[in-house]
Design goal:
82% helix; 0% strand; globular
């Protein structure tokens, strides 16, 4: 089977799975507070538990994908996550959602490293960024559609639990679809012989060996952490800044968000092919520079037009960087450790998103509304400089 069909099948599985994951995002806080009477602090703990577990387990699942194959990891992870929304419908004690989201986060962590490794398995280096771009479009489609779908179903049924049933069904469908496609295509998602590793060492020692074999891989991880740390600073304060400082309404804030998401989705379709043709290192450098310029523009913008331009630069920068950067990680991964390398890259980015908001909120209170944006712009600029220095020899 040609790689185009293989890519589309992996993308379909990811899109359906991500739709299921995203369906729960707006419903869970509503269910906990309105139906079960939970505090907002507990909601934050539930959300943070999922994020932290998902972040740290991506590396472990990536290593398992090298040992056991992409298919078993995807299927097991999706089944674990499919069970969680069903359990949500019967729990009555809000505190029990914390351990439940721990299991849910473990399942969610399995999907991306295995799927991205599967894309790398079925693409040659000259088409890998294109494949990663398609995978990112599938991810964004699920992220964009899931919350609205969940809210619509819950509103139509008059019960948030209806959205949980839908999420579980979508995740089970993704699990069955990936299993069916694998069997039908004679092991499509199982890694070929060159990628079936036997990683007996611990994951930390395995990654240390990988960095020794490819020092640039460590540099790429550092670039990713710095970039996502900078972006993460804005998570808790972006909407507050837009409303209180710039004076935008909720509708205008939503419009800016849609512009950014639309720019990323449209650009990602093209940037993967561009990276394969023009060179992945060059595209990563340009994307990082665009992101830095967009971030510097935000704190000096006082009108909607400036924020939209900044959002476009940020979105286009992300779209340029993501498929090319992930393709480079897959090419630098030592033989037999592709899944581990991709999983570790996701863990590094997740750590940036987890730690960044802590500094962003502190800077807002300590130094004023523009301070987090200036710090974020500085961090992303450092990431751009690191990227240029790291990739100058490729």
């Amino acid at each position: 089977m040609n790689d185009r069909r293989a890519l589309w099948r992996v993308a379909i599985v990811v899109a359906i799975a991500q739709l299921g994951f995203a369906t729960v995002i707006p419903l869970l806080p509503l269910h906990l507070t309105e139906r079960l009477g939970a505090s907002v602090k507990l909601v934050g703990l539930v959300v943070a538990t999922f994020a932290l577990v998902e972040t740290f387990f991506k590396t472990a699942w990536g290593g398992l994908a090298d040992r056991l194959g992409r298919k078993p990891v995807m299927v097991v992870g999706l089944v674990l996550s499919a069970v969680a929304p069903l359990v949500m419908t019967v729990l009555r004690a809000p505190i029990l959602f914390v351990p439940l989201r721990l299991v849910d986060g473990m399942g969610s962590a399995a999907l991306w490293p295995a799927a991205a490794a599967a894309v790398a398995d079925v693409t040659t280096p000259d088409r890998r960024a294109t494949g990663m771009g398609l995978l990112n479009v599938a991810f964004l489609a699920g992220v964009a559609g899931g919350p609205s779908l969940g809210l619509f179903v819950a509103g139509f049924a008059g019960d948030t639990r209806a959205g949980f049933y839908l999420a579980s069904g979508l995740l089970l469908l993704a699990a069955m679809l990936s299993l069916t496609l694998v069997l039908k295509d004679h092991g499509l998602l199982d890694p070929p012989g060159g990628y079936r590793g036997n990683v007996r060492a611990t994951y930390l020692s395995a990654m240390a060996e990988s960095f020794q074999a490819s020092p640039q891989l460590f540099s790429l991880y550092l670039v990713a952490f710095v970039q996502m740390f900078g972006v993460g600073m804005l998570v808790p304060i972006a909407a507050i800044y837009a409303k209180q400082v710039v004076g935008l309404s909720e509708h205008a804030i939503g419009a800016v968000f849609l512009v950014v998401v639309a720019a990323v989705a449209v650009a990602t379709i093209l940037t993967g092919k561009l990276a394969d043709r023009a060179g992945k290192p060059a595209v990563v450098k340009i994307g990082m520079i665009c992101g830095a310029l967009g971030m510097w523009l935000i704190p000096i913008s006082s009108r909607l037009g400036g924020l939209i331009l900044a959002g476009l630069l940020l979105g286009i920068g992300y779209a340029l960087v993501f498929p090319a950067w992930l393709a480079l990680v897959s090419e630098m991964a030592p033989p037999g450790r592709l899944g581990l390398a991709i999983g570790a890259s996701e863990t590094v980015q997740g750590l940036g998103i987890v730690l960044g908001p802590l500094l962003g909120g502190f800077l807002w209170d300590a130094a004023g509304p523009r301070a987090p944006f200036l710090a974020s712009a500085a961090a992303i600029t450092v990431g751009a400089i690191l990227a240029v220095a790291t990739l100058r020899l490729r």
